[in-house]
Structures are given as C-alpha cells and as structure tokens.
C-alpha cells in the first residue's frame, strides 16, 4: 500500500510539473475531452437551437436532436432526399438567428438530379416542429448549377451574417476545377443570398453580363469550413490538392486563385497548371498548410472559458492528421499554431463554440462522436 501511495504521489507531482511547464510556455493547459454522444453515422454539422439542445447531421441523410445530457433522438422526419455518395450526403446545418421566434433551420446537402444523372450542392430552409420530431414547410432556396456526375467537392458550409444574409460555400466538384475561374456556374464559389433565396441587390456581380448574380467570390477548391469572424468578416478554410490547404477571408468580387495558383500539387506529384503560388490580381491565402491537413470545420472562440490565451483563437479540424488546430490570429495574420487532441486518433469534421462558451467537436466515423472540451 505504501509503495502504491508513493507511485501515486509521484505521478501527481509529474502531472503538476507538466501543467506548470505548459503554463510557462505561454499555452493554456490542454482541455479534458468529454464524450457527449456517440454512435453517429459520419456526423458532419452541428448547430445549437437553445442553451443545451443541438441538431446534428449524419451524412447518410439523417438529422437528429441531441439533448443537453447527450441523448440522441430518432431521425427527424421531413429531411430532403440526398445523394449519399462519396463526399456527398446531408452535410451542414445552421439555425436561424431568430430561431426562438421562427424555429427556422437551414440544411446544406448533396441533391440528386431528378433523372438521377448527376448531383450538386443545395440549400434548403424548414421549420422545426415544436416537438422537434419533423421538418415543416421545406423550401429549396438554392441549387448549385450545373449538376454533374461527381462524388467529390461539395463544399457546403452555411454562415449567417449579422445583417441576416446567408453565405454558402461551394466546391469545384473535382473534375470541373477549371469552372472555379468562370462566372457562368457555381463551381468553386461562395454565394450570398437572402433567407428566402433572393439575390441581394448589392452582390458584386449583379448586372454583370454572363455572371451569376449569387456569386460573392470565386477561385475556391473545396471550402468545408466557414465562420463569421470577430473582425466582422467571413472566414473560410478549404482543402488544397496535395498540400495548399487555405484560410481565406472572401471579399466581394475577388478571385482566390484556384486552380491558377496553389501551394499544392497533383496527387502523386507534379505541378498544377503553371505551378504558380501567386499571381497579380489573385488573392493570396492568409495561411496555408503543406502538407495538407485536410481541414473541415472552422470556429473562433469568443469566450474566456479556457483562459485568456485561447480567447480569440481560430480552431480548425483536421481529417488527415486527426487533430484540432488552434491558431493565434492578429490583424488578419496567423501568428502561431498549436495542434491539440492528436492522441484521440479521430477525424475532426466540425468545431463550434456552444452557448456555454465551450468547444464542441464532431468526429467523422461510422461510429462518430460528439465531444465537448472541458477546461482544466
């Protein structure tokens, strides 16, 4: 017994020293991972409907309500049909800022063509019933055009801006990457819409011949993370090919370069296009990763629940290297990066700050999990 106590005291001392060293290094102590729910089939997006309950999408085509205690409800009825192939399926979910009054939610998903020939990203709105068991008055607000036969690059993150407009990220669909540089299609774009699907009159391409008026920015590859920043700007993160993942702040009417410029290369090696990483008239990324981390999910932490060192940090999930990246950002520049939770060994698909100021994560697996990070 005395030997056991001696070892136990030693380990406590080692742990205390480690935390002290971590604090002196300028980083916050690593959070404790709490499993809130599990057994989710490739969960993709989450959104809080009140102080404790949240909606979670499963890529095969199910939307579920999760209680504050982590109880996963049955599939919610009324979800639109999805093309659950490759990277497609039921993807992001966003709750309207006035949800308490209108119970409106937005879904982003891969929509099959009526004749079964192709698919594309779509955005729909619906009312969540009072009992949380079904969607009512479903309306498709936007359909990416054209529909093509592809299993890849749907994009599909939704952000509501403070002025009540919706931003939607759209992938280049893989083999249609050249479309990201032309304005007569929605491939490789960010679009901006009213909540009823109308085009805002001040969108940058309204009235431009040959250009689709929904487009906000272009030259994107596959943006699977988006959030509204504390600077009052839209932030996105997108997959590069083999390297060249990017963080951008898409501005109206600007071109972000893909596939003319990239820090990545062809899968298996070889330059893309002319092999340029920059070119006049094309917007460079704020930050890029090579090798690729395969980023998905993006969130700023506004609370001080983890201490002041983390407050204002930008968090990005990594699918490839299975960690959570914390980025210190100042004046639109990334100053420092910390990689967290690598010991979990799980693909992090989404990250959000909850109403309680804590970070919530989804892990992408056939038995995916909803995690909450508790401060030490």
The spatial strand order of the largest sheet comes to 9-10-11-12-16
Mass-distribution shape: globular
The N- and C-terminal alpha carbons lie at a distance of 29 Å
Q: Based on DSSP secondary structure assignment, what is the total number of beta strands?
A: 24
Strand content: 35-45%
Task: State the helicity in percent bands.
Answer: under 10%
Our Rg estimate from Cα atoms comes to: 21 Å
Indicate the low-confidence ranges by residue numbers: 1-26
Quaternary organisation of the protein chains:
single chain
Would you tell me the overall average pLDDT?
Answer: 93
Helical element count? 2
CATH class of the domain at 30-292: Mainly Beta
CATH topology name of the domain at 30-292, in short, is Neuraminidase
In short:
With about 375 residues, this protein is mainly β. The chain is about 5% helix and about 35% strand. Mean pLDDT is about 95; it is low at about 1-25.
Description:
Mean pLDDT is 93; it is low at 1-26. Helices cover 7% and strands 37% of the residues. The protein has helices at 2-24, 99-102, and strands spanning 32-40, 43-48, 54-58, 62-66, 90-95, 104-112, 119-128, 135-143, 158-160, 166-169, 189-193, 215-218, 223-228, 234-238, 245-248, 254-255, 287-289, 295-300, 314-318, 324-330, 333-340, 348-353, 359-363, 368-374. It has 376 residues and is mainly beta. The radius of gyration is 21 Å and the shape is globular. Strand 7 and strand 8 (135-143) form a beta hairpin.
């Amino acid at each position: 017994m005395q030997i056991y106590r001696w070892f136990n005291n030693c380990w406590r001392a080692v742990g205390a020293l480690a935390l002290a060293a971590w604090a002196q290094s300028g980083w916050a102590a690593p959070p404790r991972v709490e499993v809130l729910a599990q057994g989710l089939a490739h969960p993709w997006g989450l959104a809080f409907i009140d102080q404790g309950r949240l909606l979670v999408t499963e890529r095969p085509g199910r939307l579920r309500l999760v209680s504050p205690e982590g109880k996963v409800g049955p599939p919610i009825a009324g979800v639109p049909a999805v093309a659950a192939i490759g990277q497609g399926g039921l993807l992001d979910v966003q709750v309207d800022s006035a949800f308490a009054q209108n119970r409106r939610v937005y879904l982003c998903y891969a929509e099959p063509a009526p004749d079964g020939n192709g698919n594309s990203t779509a955005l729909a709105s619906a009312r969540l019933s009072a009992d949380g068991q079904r969607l009512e008055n479903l309306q498709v607000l936007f359909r990416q055009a054209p529909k093509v036969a592809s299993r890849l690059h749907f994009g599909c993150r939704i952000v509501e801006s403070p002025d009540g407009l919706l931003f939607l990220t759209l992938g280049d669909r893989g083999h249609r990457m050249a479309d990201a540089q032309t304005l007569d299609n929605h491939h490789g774009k960010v679009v901006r819409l009213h909540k009823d699907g109308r085009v805002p009159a001040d969108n940058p391409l309204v009235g431009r011949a040959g250009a689709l008026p929904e487009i906000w920015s272009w030259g994107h590859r596959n943006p699977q993370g988006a959030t509204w920043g504390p600077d009052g700007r839209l932030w996105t993160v997108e997959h590069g090919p083999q390297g060249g993942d990017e963080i951008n702040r898409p501005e109206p009417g600007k071109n972000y370069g893909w596939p003319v410029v990239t820090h990545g290369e062809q899968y298996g090696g070889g330059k893309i296009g002319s092999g340029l990483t920059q070119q006049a008239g094309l917007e460079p990324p704020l930050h890029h990763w090579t090798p690729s981390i395969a980023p998905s999910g993006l969130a700023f932490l506004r609370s001080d629940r983890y201490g002041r060192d983390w407050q204002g940090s930008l968090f990005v999930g990594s699918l490839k290297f299975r960690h959570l990246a914390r980025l210190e950002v100042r004046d639109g520049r990334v100053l420092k990066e910390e990689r967290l939770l690598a010991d979990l060994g799980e693909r992090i698909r989404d990250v959000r700050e909850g109403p309680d100021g804590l970070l919530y994560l989804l892990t992408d697996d056939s038995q995916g999990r909803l995690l909450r990070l508790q401060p030490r």
